[in-house]
TrEMBL record:
InterPro entries in the cross-refs: ARHGEF16/ARHGEF26_SH3 (IPR035797), DBL_dom_sf (IPR035899), DH_dom (IPR000219), Ephexin-like (IPR047271), PH-like_dom_sf (IPR011993), PH_domain (IPR001849), PH_ephexin (IPR047270), SH3-like_dom_sf (IPR036028)
Annotated PH domain residues: 95-217
Keyword Amino-acid biosynthesis listed: no
Name by which UniProt lists this protein: ARHGG factor
Length: 306
């Protein structure tokens, strides 16, 4: 790293070509908007837009598919099922959405609480199944139970769902704000099982609850996009967790949820969703700009099938 490189590491320069490719559809869309529709150049630009968008989609899909497959094989090797009936984890249609360690709620936690009790579970949440494990080492997990997401219900403990959805600024180290219950109506043995868990913070709990409930919602397709807040990214962010969203400077994102310093949003240029720090973004307050961004998003999705 040198001053000439802006203090950036080698990996930053290796991923720059891919970052430029993902921005090409927006560039071609801008050219289309600024070209008269009665010119031959306009029709050429439209064809180029569709071709570039198809290329970008193939690049994204290929990279995502390879990354997910490698990740699934790695996780499968790290899991020990012991007496639990083995679950065939590796599948082309399955991917990891969230993972992490959560304390198991006990009676002592309601009086005196620490970040983690002596008993904790490490959860792996995939797009179709939740696997509950106990961490044996950094690369070894003993499976305690699992259930498909259709058989799972989530119950908030300590605050209302309305507070969670609205992203109330109230924050505390009290476990009452960080607790939630996972109900497995049909677990690995075909029985009902309940687990009360404690997250490290209200924002961590919000991310877990929203992820666990995601399959029961319609991906917010019924929402009016123009009613959602929009932010522009002022500082690039690289995802550190499976449920986070990598962003580049000047990206525009529709905000779906706000909670304690974090936004969950949908990236305008390709529809990808995830969480990112609110400090990376500034809200777009100009109504004309908001409406223009929504129209552009809808046009890109329709014309390029991205």
């Amino acid at each position: 790293m040198t001053a000439d490189c802006g203090g950036l590491s080698m990996i930053s320069f290796l991923i720059l070509p891919m970052q430029r490719v993902t921005r090409l559809p927006l560039l071609m869309d801008t050219i289309c908007q600024k070209t008269s529709t009665d010119l031959e150049e306009y029709h050429s630009a439209v064809k180029a837009l569709k071709s570039i968008s198809k290329l970008v989609k193939q690049c994204n899909d290929g990279a995502r598919r390879m990354e997910r497959t490698e990740q699934m094989y790695t996780i499968q090797k790290q899991m020990e099922f012991g007496k639990i009936k083995p679950f065939p984890l590796v599948s082309a249609s399955r991917w990891l959405q969230k993972r992490g360690e959560l304390a198991v709620c006990t009676e002592e936690l309601s009086i005196f609480w620490k970040a983690f009790s002596n008993k904790s579970y490490y959860l792996f949440l995939f797009n179709d199944v939740l696997i509950v494990t106990r961490k044996k080492s950094e690369e070894s997990y003993l499976v305690m139970d699992y259930a498909t997401l259709e058989q799972i219900e989530v119950q908030l403990l300590g605050s209302s769902e309305g507070q969670l959805a609205s992203g109330s600024p109230r924050s505390s180290s009290s476990p009452n704000l960080n607790m939630f219950k996972v109900v497995m109506k049909r677990n690995s043995e075909g029985k009902e099982e309940q687990i009360a868990l404690v997250a490290e913070s209200p924002s961590d709990r919000a991310r877990w609850v929203i992820a666990l409930q995601h399959h029961k919602h319609t991906d917010n397709d019924d929402l009016n996009k123009e009613d959602l807040p929009q932010v522009e990214i002022i500082k690039g962010y690289r995802a550190k967790q499976p449920d986070e969203l990598s962003l580049q400077q000047a990206d525009v994102v529709l905000v779906l949820h706000k909670v304690e310093g974090w936004f969950q949003g949908e990236r305008l240029r390709d529809g990808e969703r995830g969480w990112f720090p609110s400090s990376c973004a500034t809200e777009i307050t100009n109504r004309i700009a908001v409406e223009r961004n929504v129209r552009r998003m809808e046009r890109l999705r329709k014309e390029t099938d991205v």
